[in-house]
Fold this protein.
Amino acid sequence: MKILVLNCRVNSVEFEVFDMPKEEKLCLGVVDKIGLETAQVTYKCPGMKEPLQLIQPVLDHQRAVESVLKIVSDDKNGVAKSPNEIYGVGHRVVHGGERYFDSVLINNEVKKEIYQNFELAPLHNPYNFKGIEAIEKLLPGKPQVAVFDTSYHHTLSEVAYRYPIPERLYSQYRIRKYGFHGISHRYVAEHTSALLKKPLNKTNLISIHLGQGSSMCAIKNGISIDTTMGFTPLEGLMMTTRSGNVSPGIVFFLQKSGWSLNEVESCLNRESGVFGISGISDEMKDVVEEMKSGNKKAKLSVEMFVYRIQEYLGAYYIRLKNVDAISFTGGIGENSDIIRKMTCDKLDFIGIKLDDKKNKKAIGTEADISATGSKTKVLVIPRNEKLLIVRDVYKIVKK
């Protein structure tokens, strides 16, 4: 059974095709720079020496999905004889609001809820929705499944998800902590329990997703009990261009100083974080290299980034009391041995000990990097949200 997984973003559509239930990845790719005459389609299958790259006009998301279906059913490089071989489609949908706590088969009611959550995730849900509508037109009748980024965090207690603001703001505007990166954190939880050979419902861990967007999740007995991102993905950890937690008074101060709301929002989302402090790049690897060369601003930005990870590590240890593992994932988490080492430095008093040699070797690969005698396992788990999505799709559509 061939299942297509789509992640539709503002300017791109990522895709993978799996053969289920074997969980064999048949191909993957991305349509980038949607809206331009010079959009780029990159496509790769196992066995191809180099990815196939095409430059072509892709003016909207429907044409992007058309390009995906065309290339996966191409006579020469495709993995299906026709698009109709695709049995079902899974979509990463960022926001499920307070209604959807699990992955669901998409129907008009589900589409309506996704649409109503546009205001809660304006940079994501509208484009996830475009992908769903494109498949409806191009593959009519094929089952589609929505896998929500927020759903994993529905297990947060009211104490954890409510903000100390008037009740009317929650009831009228749905202002609460939703959490994000839930698909990633859920995958990490399931994979960590498998690596530890321990039942998921008896596994406690701290999942650390570090990338362009960064978040952490405290997971008790396999379920999320707290997470760093909140009402929006701006909350929580310092990120590459996002500020993370700052005093809300800063917003009022800047407005009184003549800044518009759009200017404040742009500053906190795109000009802050590691880039804002270092002034170098929104790529952590570039900033780390500058830090190694003695750049003081780069050093400060990296130290601030790590400082805030350690803040939440301490808080989550208190929440969990007993922690089986901390698991790093995401582009930075998987590939930066420096960030992992700095994060775990001097934490042996709570049972975290890193093996430097193992840590340096673990670049973009699954690994146990904990030292002998470490009470808490330290793991590197490459991000694989699409595998979790396809598992959910298969579970739903095979019924």
